[in-house]
Amino acid sequence: MSELKDKCENCTKQCNKKRSDGGVNVRQHRGDVSEQATEGSPLPLSACLSCDGCLSKEETLKISQQNLEAVQRVLLLNKKCDVSKHKVLVASVCPQSLPFFAVKFGLDVTEAAHKLCGFLKSLGVQYVFDTTLAAGFSILESQKEFVQRYRKKHHDSHALPMFTSACPGWIRYSERVLGSLVTPHICTARSPQQIMGCLVKDYFSKQQKLSPENVYHVLVAPCFDKKLEAVREEFYNSLLETRDVDCVLTSGEIFYLIEQRKVSVEDLDSVPLDQVLGEPGDMALVRHEGRGSEGFLEHIFKHAAKELFGLDVHEVTYKNLRNRDFQEVTLERDGETLLQFAAVYGFSNIQTLVHRMRKGQVPYQLVEVLSCTGGCLSGRGQTGSEAVARVDKALIQQMEEAYSSLPVRLPEVNPTIHTLYLDWLQGQDSLKASSLLHTQYRNQSPSHTQPPHMQW
Length: 456
Prior knowledge:
41% of the residues lie in helices and 12% in strands. The chain contains 17 helices and 11 strands. It has helices spanning 3-20, 45-50, 57-64, 68-80, 98-105, 109-123, 132-151, 168-178, 192-207, 225-230, 251-260, 296-309, 347-358, 380-383, 393-404, 415-423, 431-437, and strands spanning 88-93, 127-130, 162-163, 215-221, 236-237, 242-243, 247-250, 319-323, 326-333, 336-345, 366-370. The strands form 3 sheets. It has a 5-stranded mixed sheet with strand order 3-11-10-9-8, with helices on both faces. β10 (336-345), α13 (347-358) and β11 form a beta-alpha-beta unit. α7 crosses α9 (192-207) and α7 (132-151) crosses α12. The chain is globular, with a radius of gyration of 21 Å. The model is unreliable at 1-7, 18-42 and 448-456 (pLDDT under 50).
């Protein structure tokens, strides 16, 4: 039995004992509502990372401040104080949250997005964005980094495999538990959430002639772990005393507020989403290519095939291995395997992957890792309780159908991204692009065992 499995089983036993004694409270963060994890229920990774056994007191305090009350306090202060002290509220909505509202409202994704925008603006939010733009930056930077890593694989043992970095649950687990086995392999591209934070606080605020500390940025996400990502110290500007993302609310929290206020869908105004560049007219909502709601693997796979081997890949075929949440994608030419990627979703599959890594038995150059089975649409912030493993499968299926109905748009052909690379970042290879679109992940594990050397 691997060291990881021993550690996880021991942690789970201790956590279950604490829960049965009433000592562990995994919060559901729905306003002032909190729920105890059901005794004896299996722990999903999100709950494992959010219990008081893993979070410091400081982290627990910061996360507890990310709730509906925090946003309502800002709105109330705006009503009470003079205009010079107002905070401009900006909300950014993850594309994986929009299908949730589409299903709940009984509308298509675009109509639901307009209704959600109308509700948020009725509260006092001035601008509402969709984070697909930020995801485009993250994908492009991940593509570029993979090619760079691949080309230096023979003289850098940490170059490959490259692990995606958009899932904060996976990042947390890598830093705190897996340590040096994984952290050097994590892609340095910031997640769409944090790139959106930079877009709002660094670019959009300047366009509006606002100081970043006078902008209150709320992100609507399908996942509780996004709250933990928002409070990471590298995303805090100590000089201005402001965060890139001030508060993360889950889709479920927003829907809870709609229900609490007894607002019907018919009563909500239909308001088009705002655009970062302030383009006139309503821009169509789009999605990125890929299985479910992710897209990083497919984009990087197609880009690498073209950039490294001159091959145009039009369709990616997934091969199920252990289950539909552990899949493989292979690029072959004349019987030779050129690329081998994997999509690994869910804690159980992550443990299998890491067990193989410890034995040096991972053949992949890239692995897209997500802590939720089924991907981000299955985030506990919109499919069930953070503390209980059970999710609403019917809801997930409906959300998948709603999301897949959106048209695909490649970030490479998005003119807004190209404009922002020039106007905001001074070029794709600039120091500013490197600083604002990338970060570093570090080993925080108490164990510093050297990982085995792996051949690629």
